[in-house]
Amino acid sequence: MIKNKIKLSTLLTLAICLLIVLILPTKMSSYTMRVVNNALIFGIVSYGLSIMLGMGGQISFAGLTFMGGGAFAAANLCSGRWGFWLDPVLAIFVSAVLMAILALVIGMIILKLNGSFFTFATIALVQVTYTFFVNYKPLFGGAGGITNIAQMKIFGIEFGNNYFTWFYFLAIVVAIVAFFVERVRQTELGRSLAFIRDNDTAALTFGINVYRTKVIAFTISGFLGGLGGALYALQMRFVGADMFTYERSTLFIIMTMVGGVNSSIGVLVGSLIITVLPELLRNVPGIDRYLQLSYGLLVIVMMVFMPMGIAGMFNALKKNIKIKVASRKTSKNLNEVKEASK
Amino acid sequence: MGINAVEFEVNEVTFNTILSMLVNGTAFGMVYALMAMGIILLVRAIGVLNFAQGDFFMLGAYIALGYLVDLELPLPIMIPVALLTYALIALIFMICVYWPLREASYPAAIVIATIGTSYVIKELVQIIWGSLPRPMPPLLSNPETGGAKLLTIGTAKLSWQMIITMLVGAAAIILVFILFEKLYAGRMMEAAAQDKYVAELLGIPTIITVAATYIISITLASIGGFLMAPMLTVNVTLGTLQLRAFAGVVIGGMGNIKGAIIGALFIGLLESFSSVWFGAYKDAVVFSVLLLFLVFRPQGLFGTKIKDKA
User: A140 — contact with chain B (CB < 8 Å)?
Assistant: First the structure.
């Protein structure tokens, strides 16, 4: 019974998503399509953050570092800077795996630290990598970034600058990632992470290897960061260091929080809201600043009223209604019992 | 960012360069120390890591700019007015971001709310003052050239602004120490920070001590911004300087005010010297040192054991 219900709601969400994927491109210009694509890519990176932050309760600024690493790795592999061109799909895969390995190594070192010390370490990481991205020309192209990235090609379909093809491709990738994250949430790893978030000492006494669980989560977030970065590089066909500053990484945390840090759909909604809304309202003069301002306010208000984001609010609402319905039922039953006893 | 704005004329390391690097580093370190102290005070008192500290630093610079340049208030009037404004902003921050969240079930919520605050301040400042960087006149200017007044020691030329920054920073630090070590009010705050429940039993109004902590913390950061503004142009990215204060906090040992001050001064000097020897990579040097500290000595220079309230 319960299983059926869950399936129904999941099916409904899937159907709505499919509908959006089919309808959206017909209403969009090429430019807005590209913005939406970026939002999807940011969504992939945000999924990595949501595994660390939502499931594990660890504030990590490092998602952007791995995104930057992935972007520059893919850019190097696909721009012929080293005298060879790798197949774009292979390059994406290689970059993501590279970032996963990097995240594993870094995670093994810095996840020995707890709470805010870990957060400091990720901030330091962002600063160090950003400095290298800006200054180290041989690998990262210096201030000018890397241009001339080869165009995306998969199964013989050339993407070129056709952002509609990109959209369908990214929608599939995001769907796979979302499915994967949803699976993680329901496996032992996800539950261990939630336990660690709620009380790490208790998790330890229950025999959960806290350190190893966190390292695995960090590695996954590194992989997703690298994947997002590589896709970003190939879609924009240009990578610059400006994308990967500390300020940007706070924006990613906001993206993850706005939609609902613990919901696969919520994370996507958050990145769509934050990335696409400013573009849609671009023609209204002066609204941009106020929009940005409202994001900050929104985050504060949300932390006060619904710390688990929009999706968390829906869940809480559902729970409330259920409790009300249930209590009404029980009170009805009670009345019946009372009347019967009379 | 940071010391980049202070130009060195160095080709070889001479006494002059070492002296000016020392003064630069100490002045910047002092400002980082003001921010770091604020961070530590908040972490100790309520366990909140404030990610908006750097933005209050930036806001302090903008408010000083607003009073001095836009409204053209004379300095003796402007300073108390600015200090009052800083305190008022601290109270608003506390009421909006700490008070509704003090019993939040999700512990990261309040920290993320400060990230949101940082965003709000950045955008608000750009709405009010525009997004172009603005120059701020130095507190002591040379009447002949109109530039910053310089102090000449031997052949070295030092900016008075740097020296004022060092002196005011040191004075503020000493005042905070007097408050906590010598005054009854400070001891009350200390007690409330260490054990809120027992402090309440003793009749200490913890709400007032928390408010006082907020005022001190934010005002210290804002004063730092005010002092630093003439040396850098006033712009939104000033907020990132808080990362150096964080570095100072960690290096000094989390939860230890003295350690944080020494750590912040160390970061200032390290930044100053590495800007000469490592050029554009100075940030990488500073934060690599932070990473090394985190990996090999997370309790910092002066911490005895790791305590993590935030």
Answer: no
